[in-house]
Design goal:
Strand content: 25-35%
CATH class: Alpha Beta
Number of helices: 12
Distance between the termini: 29 Å
Number of strands: 20
Mean pLDDT: 91
Low-confidence stretches: none
Largest sheet: 9 strands, mixed
Structural class: alpha+beta
Bound molecules: flavin-adenine dinucleotide
Radius of gyration: 21 Å
Shape: globular
CATH superfamily: FAD/NAD(P)-binding domain
CATH architecture: 3-Layer(bba) Sandwich
Number of domains: 1
């Protein structure tokens, strides 16, 4: 193997593998390093979870040629229903009202993983190193050196850290990250319901934490139930029947009865923010840059905008540089352009997500009354709804070409 690359991507999860596929048409020499095989039960990205994709993310997946294969597995969200348990106020957002076909799509992570990796494995000459673990990165003026655990050494013009919230690359580059533990755990599972979901996604705020129920094919729903760690453990320990009864009690009967439940997984929740998103010959993307609470289903959508923006900045640099010098895809200029572009979107999504967690965790009576009134007013206020739905559709701020539905080049 030739050990010199234009780009080495550390981490082949949802975001790293998406970047690798997005870069394919540019004809660069790219290697993707992933620690855990796709088919392993330990794969931390492509696991039993489902992901709510924004319309902007659907555009990106269409632009990189994957949506036709994914759409049969993606359940459209036509309505979002937000409520505060024990209170009168609730809010609805309707796709028809917002003049879009769907407010988003729910896709199993494993389906996305299979599509991304199949595409990469089909590409002749693409280097997918798995299982392989990045241990050390040494940036230099011309190249960065990447050391793998098995002793392999690679060099690249640009190293992209897409190795998740605990990013080893970020640490190797000495880039600190702030971590705020929410003291909450998300229980994730799939349930069958006696009443059809009619493509409605529910977000229910409860005194113990938010509960999201997302529509899936075949009268099934994905459950993301956030609880204090001890309460989450108690729910994980319950047999299926009492678990379903507790879920029913928290959610109510809008979907009739919960009749069956699948395997339950648990995810401790924290807000992780890297103090810098670029370094010498290095970009940090996805959860390695920012790991969010799943309350608003924004983490992957934001990471995919990192992907589409970085790919666009690289594509633009290639066409501007011309073939004469060969493009330097890890130049300081390119990285600064990427970083400046991403700043606003990242800040607003972090603030929005974190703000929601705090607002609905606040149990003070006055705050609860104000929140309840807020939900009612929101339901009556079309401009507020449009603004929020633009955000959740993935259409807020200055978007990269792929997210707007235009080609990369
Ligand atoms: C319960 C829950 C529900 C969610 N729901 C949604 C949702 O509905 N919508 C949404 O947009 N987002 C959602 N998210 C967020 C979303 O899952 C993450 O944003 C997304 O997984 C980030 O992908 P990533 O590739 O950046 O990181 P990860 O998924 O963490 O992947 C990192 C990859 O890097 C590999 N790796 C790690 N270290 C190394 C190393 N040293 N060398 C090589 N490889 C390495 C790992 O094996 C892994 O494959 C949810 C998150 C949670 C916890």
């Amino acid at each position: 193997m030739n050990r010199s690359f234009d780009i080495v991507i550390a981490g082949g999860g949802m975001v790293g593998a998406s970047l690798a596929v997005t870069l394919l048409p540019l004809g660069l020499k790219v290697a993707l390093i992933e620690a855990t095989p796709l088919e392993s039960a330990q794969q931390p990205s492509f696991d039993e979870r489902t992901t709510a994709l924004s319309n902007g993310s659907r555009n990106v997946l269409t632009g990189i040629g994957l949506w036709p294969g994914l759409s049969a597995h993606a359940t459209p969200i036509r309505r979002i229903h937000v409520s505060d348990r024990g209170h009168f106020g609730f809010a609805r957002i309707d796709a028809a009202e917002q003049q879009v076909e769907a407010l988003g799509y729910v896709l199993p992570n494993r389906v996305l993983g299979a599509a991304l990796w199949t595409r990469l494995q089909r590409e002749e000459g693409f280097e997918l190193l798995c299982p392989a673990t990045v241990e050390e990165v040494q940036p230099g003026d011309e190249y960065a050196r990447v050391h793998l655990r098995d002793g392999t050494e690679l060099q690249a013009r640009l190293v992209v850290a897409a190795d998740g919230a605990q990013s080893a690359v970020r640490k190797a580059l000495d880039i600190a990250a702030s971590v705020r533990d929410y003291g909450q755990t998300a229980i994730v599972t799939i349930v069958a319901t006696s009443r059809p979901h009619e493509h409605t996604a529910y977000e229910r705020f409860t005194p113990t934490g938010p509960l999201a129920i997302l529509p899936l094919e075949g009268d099934r729903c994905a459950v993301i139930w956030t609880l204090a760690p001890e309460a989450a453990q108690a729910m994980l320990d319950l047999a299926d029947e009492p678990f379903l009864a507790a879920l029913q009690d928290t959610f109510g009967s809008r979907l009739g009865r919960f009749t069956r439940v699948g395997r339950r997984g648990a995810y401790p929740l924290a807000l992780t923010q890297a103090e810098a998103r670029i370094g010498q010959r290095c970009a940090i993307i996805g959860n390695a840059a920012q790991g969010l609470h799943p309350i608003a289903g924004q983490g992957f959508n934001l990471g995919l905008r990192d992907v589409a923006t970085l790919a666009e900045v690289i594509a633009d640099a290639m066409s501007a540089d011309g073939a004469a010098h060969g493009p330097d895809v890890g130049s300081e200029r390119l990285l600064h352009r990427y970083d400046a572009w991403r700043r606003r979107d990242r800040r607003s999504i972090v603030a929005f997500t974190d703000g929601l967690v705090r607002l609905f965790a606040d149990r003070r009576p006055l705050v609860r009354r104000a929140r309840n009134l807020g939900l009612l007013l929101f339901d009556l206020a079309p401009p507020a709804k449009s603004a929020l739905s633009r955000l959740s559709l993935g259409f807020a701020g200055r978007l990269p070409r792929l997210a707007r539905g235009a080609p990369l080049q």
